[in-house]
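User: Good morning. I'm curious how 6-O-phosphono-alpha-D-glucopyranose would be positioned relative to this chain. Could you predict the structure with it bound?
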Amino acid sequence: MCGIVGYTGEKECEDILINSLRKLEYRGYDSAGIAVFENGKIKTVKAKGKINDGLVKKLDEEGSLKGVTGIGHTRWATHGEPSDINSHPIGNGRVSIVHNGIIENYRKIKNFLIGKGYVFESETDTESVAKLLDYYYKGDPTEAISKAVTDIEGAYALGIIFIDHPDMIYAVRKDSPLIVGIGENEMYIASDMTALLEYTKHYYLLETGEIASISKTGATFCDIHGNEIKKEIQTATWDISEAEKGGFEHFMLKEIHEQPSAIHKTISPRIKDGMPCFDECGLTDDMLRNYKHIFIIACGSAMHAGMVGKYLIELLARTPVIVDIASEFRYRNPLLSDKDLVVIISQSGETADTKAALELANEVGADTLAFVNVVGSSIAREAKMVMFTYAGPEISVASTKAYMVQNALMYLLAFRVAFARNMIDEQECRRLVSVLETMPDKVGECLEDLDPYRKAASKLVSADSLLYIGRGLDYALSMEGSLKLKEISYIHSESYAAGELKHGTISLIHEGMPVIAVTTQSGLLSKTVSNMREVRSRGAYVIAVCAEGIQIDSDSADFTITIPASEDMFMPLIAVVPLQLIAYYSSVLRGNDVDKPRNLAKSVTVE
Ligand code: G6P
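Assistant: Good morning! Here's the predicted structure, ligand included:
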């Protein structure tokens, strides 16, 4: 989704703004622009397309912008197609803004302003805010911002510059994220810390309803009534090297390789004396014993981690778990009460639907526990309990290491729920934890030889469509494998419970159609193998992913990928690696932009 940056200091800011925008490319965007104070005037250059093809080219043609204060933006179109005119910054010679979010009542504001004589040029909702600020601006920026945000409805993070304040940037937010970076005689704004890691690790977190007035020497904060707010300085724990490719061709490949260490970093602080420990978030065995229901709510890959969690908790703790897509949950009046636990999973901690689901659960009085990767994110702050996944920054749009560690935490949660509810004893709990601790090595082993994944990808790369099949945990994992492939290779695929194929979907099978069969659950092996034979005898090209020691005969599969074995329950953590890499190589072979697939955004901050 849209990315915001801003700089005020003593250096020429064009390069800093563009460099920071490049760091936000991963969020997904289709146009980019900057506005800089040049000799006291606001000068704007913006263009449809990628930063290099559009904005940088235009700056080369039209001449670079010279100034020490400016704002920048990568836009992911919502209102109005990607075009130069709809790109941000948007404004006039007096006020210019960059915006992330959606202004829901923009038509009303637009009509009001048209009545006042304003003429609109773009199709964006953002222009109504830019013109509203201009309307209210009588020389005092915070007064104009206070009045404007009182009128607007929706989600927004705004970076704003006003003509009479050429050494200042102003910012305000509601729901969409924004931080204020702190340097030496220079200050920044950004949608997230990855944009600024090269310049500073220190920042303020802007909260909903707070207005920041930022000069090169620091920032002051007030609410919309002008009351001053004191804020604490935060320090990022992420390192710039984590947000760089480090010799890998793509971030996705690098992030897949970071999985063993990410699992280790995520689980080891949560294992105390061999037992899973949730003390850091205040979740006690008493609480776990008494919850009536456990819900797991998330979007995309995070929801798939929830599916694995459901199988595990139900298997070990014999407690029913309801997994729901956040955008469905929030509007279906769920049967939720203050006796329930709602587990919210999100890499970014900013996904609009997931955040809304969390707010709903909080309102009902349920206990909310968030698994989040970004410290300081909205979901991390709003959940009653939070456990961070220590994946480090995930830049590739397709989630890999974040999904992996969401799963890893799910295992610990499942063990603890089962122990608290007396479904497993302490000895068994410790044993399960010790198996989990072997997972970084097992995942590492999958990464020793990438050739089989490349070969498997070459077998399916020219297909129009394929199926992923599996049973039990293999089915939960197939969902993630199929999503990964769709996201980055643009090949249509579906995940199907293998036993359900006969009830309609098997009619899709035709000569040469690839079917990826995940067969890691030894207890279900013979059943899945029958399904593989059924599709293969109807012409499918079957690629099997199975654990070492399992023999898949040539009647059942055309190509077999063998991965290290473990207990059935742990296989999803290992088997996801081939699925990630099959998707990765399919995307590479198709010549796609692996890390920034078309139409997708990393952090979906609008509904
Ligand atoms: C987007 C991303 C997915 C991600 C989903 C949920 O759709 O492209 O990779 O799984 O959002 O994101 P979250 O940050 O809440 O985990």
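The chain has three domains: 3-241, 251-437, 451-589. Residues 299-302, 346-348, 351, 354, 397-399, 600, 602-604 surround 6-O-phosphono-alpha-D-glucopyranose (CB under 6 Å).
Let me know if you'd like a different ligand tried.
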